[in-house]
């Protein structure tokens, strides 16, 4: 039951749900015309299916042990990575001046969905490299760009992000890693970083670490953090590799999942100081890192979609083969496929619908990012605000969906679902990290409520709500949508009511924080449902080949999953007092 | 952060939520008086905390490899098991005639909660032994009882259940294992059984397998299945062990969790036939097995409670220690404990409240089982029907809670939650199986909807609903309950509406099956909420020391978790058509 890239669903999400077709008709994204979009999706699908997916179980079994001081990658990993980079996939979104193709985020996100469905442990490596490209391109000096960017864009070298320390996870203000000025324009870096994904390996000849550290005279807190480039091997002026830098991998974590990716403890400066170069300005490192992290959040969201897609396909294939008992209406010989049992059908339909909703959100987020870069002035600002609002939904909702769908997939498998050989448990184990890293999902919800809802005095969210109301209304007179219009309208009312609750003057911050996570889910259900509904309405009107399937999915989503918004609204507006009073039974 | 038996919560659930205090005042359960109840809970808590909990990580790391043909148990496992059995714990619920203490199911369930919180992989072994005791005591011949029961009751030998075959999981009609009459009153058993928990090991000198198989002239389907005792070693007339029987462990599964328990593929009869003895009548094996399975379902439900409790304690302890950022209102030095952040508090409170609700359901189920055995005539029948209704709730809701709470626990741990060393992932990995075995949770929901709702023409469910309405009303005028009375009343209305929907004449069976799982959760939220509320009202009125904590927990449950019932009702009564039409987007 191998993964197959779901090209039709991806193209629906791009063109219809995220609005690429409308945007192209309006003259945008001309570079994707003449079949390029479909060709790229098709080729990426082939590579993901044929080359990456076969690594999925291999990586999980092998882990990445340190043998003779070297991090050992699973069999086939290095060859596949090099073939992938040589085919140009790493360069898809990179800047043209450094060899990239500068194609839209939309396309990058769609291809990364497929790489991650093939193997999340594989795809997380390039995800970090591309984050490093973004940070260096935006904040690095010309000299740094000249030294590193072309190799990172091509994938000849990989990049890492070094933020976390034992005492500094969600709260980067607590960072202790030190940087000292060497007097020659370079710096010496000292300290320990943990949870560094792809922190060490020999898949590439060099690794470019981006490291947050404090200068001796830095202010306390987050305004005293600087960002440095610290290469594993120093780079000579001619671009060749020089001496080993003073950075070592001191250990590999034993994790629940994504075992094909080395999660390293990195030690800087134990031999006198790792040589680093400043990115951007001193003490302004967090701003540089946030550029990178914002896009990384969408990249993690797509991991949730990707694992959900792979797990759904895996469960669907098993349910079509596995026979037990006789489903209602079954007239065939003997036992029926379990896919026909209504309770299994419920699990499969829920999996497929949640995956589609999360995909619609992630792709719509990518659209907003692309449009903000392709617009000017207030239009660009409007799209940037939208990207800001949708990013926490994309990250948190999608990764929750990844966990929930992987969990449902195990249930569809029954007893075999608990056996590693079936492959079902790995999806849950892999998916679990995505709700944690790049800012836990709770942090995403807090970001949404405290920083994103107030954007443009609430006008940014109001514009989205208006768009979603229009999408709901568009389904009202079309066949096959059932109660979609009414149910979406009711869910949007729930959303509007909670938005008003958060905006009420004098709202207690603690109460707002207590409701943040339920609110994020509420808004995501509306966003996913509305974008899918608008897309399906358009597909239906335009007579797309898969319109019937998309309409049936939207109807299922509306009539089975949207009613949850009322409970979420209720938890937001009424649940905080008893939550904040929970010490009475938690500290007992 | 080791597990500590939650004696106060367990006693609250027993005495107040499940009504043991009221029953004792009415004269029942006299054997638990004079402090015996508290003494047993206290001693069991000590053993679980001091002896079993230290095995948790050991078992997970060691697995149970076959070395030189022998299943190797993790270090300390055998010694601890023997000490546990020698202390009399295995005999707690066993029949007095065979050395048991014949104490109530209520007490057995409470102690098994603690054994499972210590290590589910450890406790699942005795769980199966006790199931074997029940089946043999109820259906075995006097000769079989004389040979096996005393040793199984004491725990000197362990028992197993052999149902599943590769093609026969949820559908036992597909069983192929064969039994042949040997002519001397014994049988020869042939066939392969999979997923046999504690199928082989050397923790005890003998293992007593209960095996389902078909006689040559048996009718097809489930009415042609017989149950046999097949001991690992034959038992001589004097009780000493004789020859090895023809049954071998052909392999150990590599699983997601409960790795300390050997999950075996058992092969019967490859050397000419395993010698077996019939339990009950020929072709009536399934009825015997169902006796055992019904109680096993409650025993699995308590595994969900147990892992949820352990994971909640684990997360609470970490959240009290781990410091990041400053929570609203924090006036201490530096960073605050994350437990004070409202979003973390929400996760902890949700974990604790769901665990308490699942516990209340499981203990109330045990109460119904005990009362059905201690009553006569229609009263006994009434309690038996109640046990029948509550058993699927106890099994499915509690095991879903086990997964959800373990998942929340990982999230509370943040990045450390993904690292195996933290212990957080193991709870999710262990808990995952409980939603699958002993009848998947989907099967439980189908059992509830198709067989339990119609009991006594609906009067059995109606009586429960009336009891829950009274519990809701009892909180109305007491301080501290907030909106509990109104919210419970609304949830009970949702329950009553869905019960009426299922009972409507001409209800399409496929639509009913599509709504079974949401309905089970709806009914469980009401049951757990109402039993907790009634218990807290009683605790409050009686002035219990922990009444304040229990009332605060009920209020949190009512104001944060109960609103979900409206969405579940909606999914039941309106979601089926689009679910049954899902082929349009699933088979695409």
Task: Walk me through what this model shows.
The structure is a homodimer of 588-residue chains. Helices cover 56% and strands 11% of the residues of chain A. In chain A, the strands form 3 sheets. In chain A, strands 3, 4, 5, 6, 7, 10, 11 and 12 form an 8-stranded mixed β-sheet that branches. The first copy, chain A, has 3 domains: 7-154, Acyl-CoA dehydrogenase/oxidase, N-terminal domain (Butyryl-Coa Dehydrogenase, subunit A, domain 1, Orthogonal Bundle); 159-283, Butyryl-CoA Dehydrogenase, subunit A, domain 2 (Beta Barrel); 440-580. The first copy, chain A, has helices spanning 7-17, 20-25, 36-52, 56-62, 77-86, 105-118, 120-139, 142-154, 285-321, 342-374, 377-413, 424-431, 441-452, 459-474, 484-503, 509-514, 516-542, 547-561, 564-574, 576-580, 583-586; strands at 66-67, 70-71, 158-162, 178-181, 187-197, 207-213, 226-231, 233-235, 241-244, 247-252, 263-268, 274-279. At the A-B interface, helix 10, helix 11, helix 12, helix 13 and helix 16 of A face helix 10, helix 11, helix 12, helix 13 and helix 16 of B.
- Strand content bin of chain A: 5-15%
Which CATH first-tier class of the largest domain in chain A would you pick?
A: Mainly Alpha
Q: Looking at this structure, what is the CATH superfamily of the largest domain in chain A?
A: Acyl-CoA dehydrogenase/oxidase, N-terminal domain
> How many structural domains in the coordinates of chain A?
3
Biggest interface, chains and residue tallies = A-B, 97 and 97 residues
Mean pLDDT of chain A, to the nearest integer, reads 97
Oligomer: homodimer
The helix-and-strand class of chain A reads alpha+beta
Instruction: Output the radius of gyration of chain A.
Output: 24 Å
Number of helices, where a helix is a run of at least 4 consecutive DSSP H or I residues of chain A:
21
Overall morphology of chain A: globular
What name is given to the CATH topology of the largest domain in chain A?
Butyryl-Coa Dehydrogenase, subunit A, domain 1
